[in-house]
Amino acid sequence: MGFVSRAFKGRPRDEPRDARLPPGQYLVHDFPVLSAGPTPRTSLADWTFSIEGEVDEAKHWSWEELRKLPSETLTRDIHCVTKWSKLDTAWEGVSVDTLLEGVETAADYVMAFCDGGYTTNLPLEDLTGGKAWIAYAYDGQPLESQHGGPARLLVPHLYFWKSAKWVRGLRLMNEDSPGFWETYGYHMYGDPWLEQRYSGD
Amino acid sequence: MRSLDLAVPGWPGHRAGQHVDVRLTADDGYQAQRSYSIASAPSADERLTLTVERLDDGEVSPYLAGELRAGDKLELRGPIGGYFVWDPAAGGPMLLVAGGSGICPLMAMLRLRQMAMSTAPARLLYASRSLEDVIYRDELDRLVSTGSGLEVFLTLTREQPRSWTGLRRRIDSDMLQAVAWPPAQQPLIFVCGPTPLVEATANALVNLGHEPARIKTERFGPTGG
Question: Which burial class, exposed, middle or buried, applies to A195 when counting CB atoms under 10 A from its CB (0-12, 13-18, 19+)?
Fold first, then answer.
């Protein structure tokens, strides 16, 4: 808890703060774009999705194959570490549970990897049990490239940098290891409700 | 637009390009926080400068750009980030592309470059709506005049003085081709501004043959409030 900032009032508080807004977040109605480099371009003909690493046998899907898997539509709130939250975002994609069917592994962690070299690490249990998707549509339309299209990881219960744009696969790992932003001091887990923004939170 | 010079006892120092989180607390406990790029070069004197653009629908920036007075205290957290940074050891050539208040972290790099007496060749392409909107105009003129190898290209996108002979349109591929170092020289590229400018610039640079991994981007959107 900080000290009082002289004469700071903030937004009117005539309505109660939305209970779906985690601490330190504010609501937006547009969809801000954040990324560390150029938007990558991979043609769908060359696109693949892989599950590899500490697994008995790696699995790969082409774009066509991924799109033939059963998909789900879902509506979730998303929370960016840069403080904005967006409520009721509508997505379509393949559940990570579906992709992991038949995969034998003793790994506890995952590194998501992407076009452009981006990575982010997560515990495997945060990607299973209906908590994570490979999303290829937003608001009923194919996911725009600046928002991570053709497909991004969607893990809405963690800060949104964990929902890696332009995702190309999941590498299963026995030990946790920092991804891109985690190497630069962002939190290894990133729970918005615990305000785990940076290392040490 | 307002620059805040802050004395931060115990500040561990920062790298040029990093930012801080500023958190404000009202007397009823209500809090709001936002990130701001550090505009000053790293220094050992436990001071830093933030340049804040007032956003009309913002919550933190109107306070920082208006209400805040000398002697007030602020709650800061940082430095944050570590990818969008330049150190003299990284050398050059440097290509810096800014839109509006996106100049702030790039200014930290140019100030550091000057302070460290780096001779890394540097070019800044800076888009503003009008000449009045160019932040740090006098200081940029001074930095150019020291002859250290910095070139500044301003483009005024909405309004130009009658005598203006410089660039007068949004940043595009032709402009980047004319201003940017050729890809063969492998410039270190930093782009900061609103999303449409960053997207257009980064895409054009990739098309011109620059390696994506050398293009670092940072964005200031309308929701930076």
Answer: middle
- Are B156 and B167 in contact by the 8 Å Cβ rule? The answer is yes
Q: How far is CA A151 from CA A53, A127, A140, in A?
A: 21, 16, 14
Close Cβ partners of B63 (under 8 Å, ≥ 6 residues apart)? A5, A7, A8, B24
Q: Which residue of B has its CA nearest to A4?
A: B25
Residues B48 and B114 in one domain: no
Q: B200: nearest CA in chain A? A: A38
What is the maximal distance between C-alpha atoms in chain A? Answer: 61
pTM: 0.94
pLDDT above 70 as % of chain B: 98
Query: ipTM of this predicted complex?
Result: 0.92
Taking only the tens place, the pLDDT of each residue in A70-127 is 999 999 999 999 999 999 999 999 999 999 999 999 999 999 999 999 999 999 999 9
Q: How many CB pairs under 8 A join A and B?
A: 105
Average pLDDT over residues B73-87: 95
Domain that holds residue B110: 88-219
Strand partners, B99: B127
Cis before A150? omega within 30 = yes
* Interchain proximity B219–A34, CB inside 8 Å: yes
Residue A148: domain span: 48-194
> Domain containing A164 — which CATH number?
3.90.420.10
Chain B: residue nearest A8 by CA? Answer: B26
Separation CA A53–CA A38 (nearest Å): 27
- A39/B195 Cβ within 8 A: no
Stretch A157-175: mean pLDDT:
98
Q: Which of B37, B57, B80 is the last residue in one of the domains?
A: B80
Q: CATH code at B29?
A: 2.40.30.10
